[in-house]
Amino acid sequence: MRLVVDLNKCQGYAQCVPLAPDVLQLVGEEALAYDPNPDDSQRQHVLRAAASCPVQAIILELDPPADRDTL
Amino acid sequence: MTIGRSGTYSLDEVVNKFRAEGRIAIVGASLAGLRAAEALREKGFNGSLTIIGDEAHEPYDRPPLSKQVLKGWVPADHTKLPRLRRVDADWKLGVAAVALDRINHVVKLANGEEVGYDRLLIATGTRARPWPNPAEGALQGVFTVRTVEDAAGLSAALKARPKRVLIVGSGFVGSEIASVCRDLDLPVTVAERGKGPLMGALGGVISEIAAGMMRDAGVDLRTSVAVERLEGDDAGKVRHAHLSDGTVLDVDVVVASLGSIRNVEWLDGAGLAAGQWGLACDAGCRAFDINGVVTDHIFVAGDVARAPHVLYDYEFMSQEHWDNAVFGARVAANNMIHLEVGRRPHLPLPSFWSGQFGVNIKSVGVCSFGDEIVFTQGSPSERRFAAAYGKRGRIVGAVTFNHGKWLPYYASLIEKSAPFPPPPPGYDRPVDAEAVPARFPDPREPAGNPDVVLTGHDPTDRSAEFRPRA
Questions:
Q1: Are A2 and B67 inside 8 Å of each other by CB?
Q2: What average pLDDT does the structure give for chain B?
Q3: Chain A environment of B31 (Cβ under 8 Å)
Q4: What is the phi/psi pair of residue A40, to 5°?
Q5: Above 80 in pLDDT, residue B304?
Q6: B406 — phi, psi (to 5°)?
Q7: Contact yes or no for B414/B395 (Cβ under 8 A)
Q8: How confident is the model at residue B300, as a pLDDT?
Q9: Is B306 a residue whose pLDDT tops 50?
């Protein structure tokens, strides 16, 4: 699976971090670091984390669109 | 709208036919190119889409390359961008566009192929400025950081525990890499030609705070010094750096973070308004030709674009921001398949973030357009604060250090051209809340290319450099 966090929107509420600690981590008080292409085993965690963001900064691709593997 | 006899000309029909059967080519397969392709399909373009990219990779996100990839947490090729939807495009990756024939509507590729288009989106972005001496730049251990290959090479070099890393240039990328080196407990020297880090983007007052952050983290920061020469050993590995103050450093990894070069060389001869600061376009993303006449079929988005901005005296603005690529791509896509009333402006308020030394630095607006700065919230000495920049009595930019929740407030003030200094929040005021000069470098002094550049609209304006054609 893939994700990207819009770090302009992110304001460091960090609601996501405890829900997917292997994928999203806080650096210092406010900066977010994350794994953009985590293993599919993280799916449920990442879904919950994305839903929890008050500014909806987490953009997900849970399953590739049908045309992606034709590259 | 015309009614009646068949064969009567209607622009609406032309647009509908284009949306159903037309050909769009997108040159540039990174963030802006991908998001434009998705937006085109989302908005109902059903014709043929060709996406051309010189890197042999599907679109990937670059910001993690100087942070969690270098730290060793995430592999370099694990930053592929999520897809928002299917795009059904003909992807030509790993091949560069080398020329544009506007008369025959053809993009020429390096492998001899020609791609025809009805409308074209140019999103070729920027590349890292290479080390000025090619022989020295080819030494093992010398890196620039822009691509996935760069990041893979540098993270492997850092993993090998070099004795000293030298970072040349302390803009945002150089500073972030210095921060990663300290997180990895590696000795690191930063050599900055100007008076301090982040000067071009945030000015001298903030630069002093950033320099303090760097030194407190153990970075050997040297300012007002240039690296004149790199020296390698017989095996072709870099070993020493000779500085302009006479010092010689023993280094095994050198990172050149010297700013970016816009990828416009391939447009030579096409008669477009392309130059050092990118390809000029209107606020609706349509490219200008060299005479200042807007084209009909050529659009621009992302780092390579340069467009007039109403909030900044209509000066042409060139941004290297993530948001600019995403929003510009969507506006360009919309405008490629609409006529006048359906077109939208791309008037982004520049927005930026940088994570370094445990601090989340964010900014909004064009801080370098201002000449004064005032600390409005928090404590500069504790490195958690908000500060606003002003020009002639109105707020033009703002920066926060670990104060990101307050940035949208300043963004709303900037959009309204609110007065400067802005009204105080009424709590958590810094001890020193007087406006002072922001101390941006004189354009004549050597400094890097900041991430947002206002290039003026007056040919004699010294913020842009005009060079005669060879």
A1: no
A2: 93
A3: none
A4: -60, -15
A5: yes
A6: -95, -5
A7: yes
A8: 98
A9: yes
